[in-house]
Automatic annotation (TrEMBL):
<feature type="domain" description="Amino acid transporter transmembrane">
    <location>
        <begin position="66"/>
        <end position="472"/>
    </location>
</feature>
<dbReference type="InterPro" id="IPR013057">
    <property type="entry name" value="AA_transpt_TM"/>
</dbReference>
<protein>
    <recommendedName>
        <fullName>Amino acid transporter transmembrane domain-containing protein</fullName>
    </recommendedName>
</protein>
<keyword id="KW-0472">Membrane</keyword>
<keyword id="KW-1133">Transmembrane helix</keyword>
<dbReference type="GO" id="GO:0015179">
    <property type="term" value="F:L-amino acid transmembrane transporter activity"/>
</dbReference>
<dbReference type="GO" id="GO:0005774">
    <property type="term" value="C:vacuolar membrane"/>
</dbReference>
<dbReference type="Pfam" id="PF01490">
    <property type="entry name" value="Aa_trans"/>
</dbReference>
<keyword id="KW-0812">Transmembrane</keyword>
Length: 494
């Protein structure tokens, strides 16, 4: 009885806040379907098809602060990072022709799966009659009310999803530390120490440690907004210098190198799968941008904000990967920036600017780990010294990311492993499984074809996970200097 009264009261308050022109018949009454939002947890209930069709979550969302152009700019901006810097190395692993084919295929599937994920989350919000439903809660609900064999896994799916999100963003932090250390070695003339296990690499990581700890201990994200803007400017300037060096003709061989190939070796092609997954799948950014838009219904759909932005992003990735590989060929190192020789002040400036831009971006990715582990798991169990323990936790995350960066000196392998393990699940398999569970309760040929399609998507995601992870681990344990940079005969001594 209390639930019904509370639901009626909530419905009355929301009705007063809606515009007078909005039809009250559009919103189903709480008497016919008593689903409420309580303590930010979504309570399951049986929802009739008529009730579901009448409720549009977009009509009841809080007004966001991002315009369509701002949302588009955020999605495009996220393409400038370590992912795109490793694309020329990815083309070296796959070869030029195979790089175009696999890049377009895997990238297109990833973007389509993100559309599936967003539409499924909106569908789950409509079923629950709430304006917005987070990704992990949507996954749990689809597992509870979808395919019967998925129901036992509904109890662990949120923890599994959070683990993948933490692994993904923590891996990005480790990649940033890795790149900053390699850049330091390059600036100080220690090219022979790059991508190896040696004391100069450890010292380079330790040199960055105080700065990373300091910026990661800033608890208020609003204070980091100016830092983020500075990082964006530094990144764009660095990309301009990189493009200048790529298209700068050389007297001996012009624009193109003589050491590129159409198709790469079989043992290195799987590394490209993880790299393209890592590069294209800006998972957290995409979900956050859709949630904060003023007009979120324009995010998806034909020629929506997402389509316009991500087609540009995918084209930019393939363009930079192919042009960088054509320019340097077999000389490409783990990132295109480290491939450029430090023979001029402009290249040295580019190294420093990129390292500083990644330092500015580090706390934004680490915040996801802090929010999931500390705010949701640890903090509710503490009674005292919460602030002190939080700072210790933040510093511990930085130290562990530095250790991972030292243990994985080859940046392209680290990027590939993160993409193959985390993003094959988050970006491909889970959207397919989510839509399959949504379609399970439906009837008709359209939904049957949807389930067949989703089975294929999930199978593709599992293959990407298995092949990419196996190829990365095999290359890591079987790596030699010729696979990552110069050969022993030409590589400078450390």
């Amino acid at each position: 009885m209390e639930t019904q009264d509370g639901g009626q009261k909530s419905g009355s308050i929301q009705a007063k806040q809606n515009l007078a022109s909005r039809s009250q018949e559009k919103r189903p009454s709480d008497d016919s379907n008593p689903i409420i939002l309580k303590h930010k947890k979504y309570m399951a209930s049986n929802v009739s098809v008529k009730t579901l069709d009448l409720y549009d979550p977009y009509d009841y969302r809080d007004d966001g602060h991002l315009s369509n152009f701002q949302a588009w700019a955020h999605l495009v901006k996220c393409s400038f990072g370590t992912g795109v810097l490793t694309m020329p190395k990815g083309f070296q692993h796959s070869g030029l022709i195979l790089g175009f084919v696999l890049g377009g295929l895997i990238g297109g599937i990833c973007l389509y799966c993100m559309l599936i994920l967003i539409k499924s989350c909106v569908h789950m919000a409509a079923r629950q009659r709430v304006p917005y439903m987070p990704f992990n809660e949507s996954m749990k609900y689809t597992f509870e009310h979808g395919y019967p064999l998925c129901k036992p896994m509904s109890k662990i799916i949120i923890g599994f999803t959070d683990t993948l999100l933490v692994g993904y963003h923590f891996g990005i932090c480790a990649c940033y530390v890795n790149y900053m250390a390699q850049t330091t070695l390059r600036v100080f003339g220690k090219e022979g120490c790059i991508e190896g296990y040696n004391w100069p690499t450890v010292l380079a990581v330790v040199a960055w440690l105080p700065l990373i700890c300091a910026i990661n201990c800033v608890r208020n994200l609003k204070l980091l907004a100016p830092v983020s803007y500075v990082g964006n400017v530094l990144t764009l300037a660095s990309m301009g210098i990189i493009l200048y060096y790529i298209f700068k003709p050389e007297p001996d061989h012009g624009f193109m190198s003589d050491s590129w190939h159409y198709v790469g070796e079989i043992k290195t092609v799987p590394l490209y799968i993880g790299i393209i997954l890592f590069a294209v799948e800006a998972f957290g950014v995409i979900i956050a941008v859709e949630r904060d838009m003023k007009t979120p219904r324009k995010f998806v759909g034909l020629f929506g904000v997402f389509d316009k932005a991500m087609f540009i992003v995918l084209g930019w990735y393939i363009f930079l990967g192919a042009s960088g590989y054509l320019r340097y060929g077999a000389e490409v190192q783990s990132t295109i920036s480290l491939t450029i020789p430090p023979d001029h002040w402009s290249s040295t400036t580019m190294y420093v600017m990129l390292a500083l831009s990644l330092l500015c971006s580090y706390p934004l990715h680490c915040y996801v780990c802090i929010d999931i582990i500390w705010n949701n798991r640890i903090l509710p169990k503490l009674n005292q010294r919460k602030t002190l323990l939080e700072f210790i936790f933040r510093i511990a995350l930085v130290v562990v990311s530095c250790i991972v960066a030292v243990c994985f000196p080859q940046l392209d392998l680290l990027v590939s492993l993160i993409g193959a393990v985390c993003l094959s699940f988050l970006g491909i398999m889970m959207p397919g499984v989510m839509e399959y569970n949504v379609a399970w309760s439906k009837s008709g040929m359209q939904w049957n074809l949807t389930m067949v399609k989703d089975i294929g998507i999930a199978a593709f995601g599992f293959c990407a996970f298995f092949i990419g992870t196996y190829g990365c681990l095999f290359s890591f344990f079987d790596s030699n200097p010729e696979d990552h940079g110069q050969s022993n005969s030409t590589k400078p001594e450390c």
